[in-house]
Amino acid sequence: MDFNQRPFTVIWETTRACDLACLHCRAEANPERNPAELTFQEAQALIRSIKEFGRPYPILILTGGDPAKRPDIFDVIGCAREEGLRVAMTPSATPLITRDAVRRFAEGGLVRLALSLDGKNAATHDGFRGVSGSFDRTMQILDWCCDVGLETQIHTTVTRHVLHVLPDIADMIAGLRIKLWALFCLIAVGRATRPEIRRFNINARQFESLFHWLYDVTKSAAYDVTPREGYHYRRVLLQRRAAELGVSVVELLAEVEQKTLTPTDLGPSGKAPKIVRAPLGVNDGKGVVFISHKGDVQPSGFLNLVGGNIRSESLVDVYRNSPLFLRIRDYSQIKGKCGACEFKAICGGSRARAYAITGDPMRSDPYCIYQPTAWKSRGSATDRQTEKHGYRICPQSGNHSRMAERR
């Protein structure tokens, strides 16, 4: 697929309403729906516009807030399936998701349901999600999905509060028959911009250790594993795989860049069944497009820059031709060590994290410790100084300040 022409994934924020009160919520959700949300008729138009990208159609992810807060969510799923789209959903674990609702999701053709699990027990998970009973409800929904044959995946937000129990969570979910464990690397947007939440973020060296641990997990887990907004895992994946195969990283990288491979294809052979995964190289705005509850078109839900609005513009045209999306996909414009990195084509760094921390989506991902060969010899003195000392620019004020998380 040419990700300049079509995305692999379209993510629609169906609503910002949610009955949980998660400490890190990107959407800063609240219980009430916004009257400016896309209507069902506009949702139908959105679904038709996704088909305009052509085959193979992008997969549609229904997210929020909580999609279950929309009474028409079953009709939305039905419409998308009738149009030939694959549809997945990320609801909140609340009483809105009943056994009957799970059955209707399965019968309606939903391909997978994703649920969040942010602790090994109710105390840690419920504290993070802000509502008692969320952990038990999550486990109940997973059981119901198994009963009706609906595929599931688990999302875990990686912060310092959960880092030390990730092995326990990995063991716990081993018996849940999930297809994928996605670990979300925190981006400082929404409620996560608050100082008391930002301090829970892990640092760059912890990211590196996490990625090596994830690689080892893939060797024995019965489910696939991936980090989200941790694109530099792909570099670790290549380095580890090259070492195991007894080839140079340069050789393996050259071979990978000639093919369309997913992290699962490149990783070690494990117990996990093959599932549909985004290919290497997919990144914010490059293979991914996000539509807000009001129709704004963004490179991702964590990168709050707008390229257009589907109420007045074509989704296909915004994705292919808007200045924002053209810039975000132009890796020749990436600055700093990410711009000089030999892994740039398959990684690219998190453009969302770069923007959240520096105010510039084309700067280097500040949470990668790797020093590219070309960067050591050709990187500009100014950029090297910025990378070394960790200065950032606050997007709101434009003022310089020191990064709280030191590498």
- Mean of the pLDDT scores? 89
Oligomer: single chain
Strand content: 5-15%
Low-pLDDT stretches: 379-407
Query: How would a crystallographer describe the biggest sheet?
Result: 11 strands, mixed
Description of the structure:
By secondary structure, the chain is an alpha/beta fold. Strands 1, 2, 3, 4, 5, 6, 7, 8, 9, 10 and 11 form an 11-stranded mixed sheet that branches. Strand 9 and strand 10 form a beta hairpin.
List keywords for this structure.
globular; alpha/beta; single chain; 407 residues
Outline of the structure:
The chain has helices at 40-51, 73-82, 99-107, 122-129, 134-148, 160-163, 166-173, 195-198, 204-218, 233-245, 249-256, 263-266, 315-321, 323-329, 336-340, 351-358, 373-378, 381-389, and strands at 9-13, 59-63, 87-89, 112-116, 152-158, 180-185, 224-228, 283-284, 287-291, 296-298, 308-309, 391-393, 400-402. By secondary structure, it is of the alpha/beta class.
Map the helices and strands.
Elements: E1 9-13, H1 40-51, E2 59-63, H2 73-82, E3 87-89, H3 99-107, E4 112-116, H4 122-129, H5 134-148, E5 152-158, H6 160-163, H7 166-173, E6 180-185, H8 195-198, H9 204-218, E7 224-228, H10 233-245, H11 249-256, H12 263-266, E8 283-284, E9 287-291, E10 296-298, E11 308-309, H13 315-321, H14 323-329, H15 336-340, H16 351-358, H17 373-378, H18 381-389, E12 391-393, E13 400-402
Parallel strand pairs: 1-2, 1-9, 2-3, 3-4, 4-5, 5-6, 6-7, 8-9
Antiparallel strand pairs: 9-10, 10-11, 12-13
Helix pairs in contact: 1-2, 3-5, 9-10, 10-11, 13-14
